[in-house]
Amino acid sequence: MKNERDEQFHQFVVSRRAALVRTATLLTAGDAHLAEDLVQSTLTKLYVAWPAFQRADNPDGYVRRVLVNALTDERRRWWRRSERPMAEVPDRAAVSHIEGDLSGGLRVALRELPPRMRAALVFRYFYDLDIADTADALGCSEGTVKSQTARALDRLRTVLGPNPSLALL
């Protein structure tokens, strides 16, 4: 039997899960499997902290922060460092999947960025957050957001070269 908290959380998941997966996919530079893991981890943490989430002044900022923290935690896992990503898993049939809204070159370039630089770009340019909201999501100062964003854009320009789609950033 569901209690009121469970029902509220269920409604939250139903209404926000797709947006969380999109954000996580951007944060992971198109890694759909890792994005799903991050969303599941984020939802688990939110469920545990549901009363605090409901009291938050900025619920969207709270969720972004939990998602970024989940990404940071994931990148710190010892087995992740020794994992070798492969285009196709050996001994299994190839599965096609939707790559999302990113072009192949931009996805590869984003993948080369450290997670916090990538997160700064995603929140600033894909979600059009201001510097203060991005700093809040990343748990850092506004100056750090500015420097991380500038460095990330420089790296992307180096990797992608003169590219009209990068002019939007």
From TrEMBL:
Keywords: DNA-binding, Sigma factor, Transcription, Transcription regulation. Residues 19-80 form the RNA polymerase sigma-70 region domain. It holds the Pfam family Sigma70_r2. Gene3D superfamilies: 1.10.1740.10, Winged helix-like DNA-binding domain superfamily/Winged helix DNA-binding domain. It comes from the Bacteria. Transmembrane segments: none annotated. Residues 106-156 form the RNA polymerase sigma factor 70 region 4 type domain. Belongs to the sigma-70 factor family. ECF subfamily. NCBIfam families: SigE-fam_strep, sigma70-ECF. This is SigE family RNA polymerase sigma factor. It comes from Actinoplanes sandaracinus.
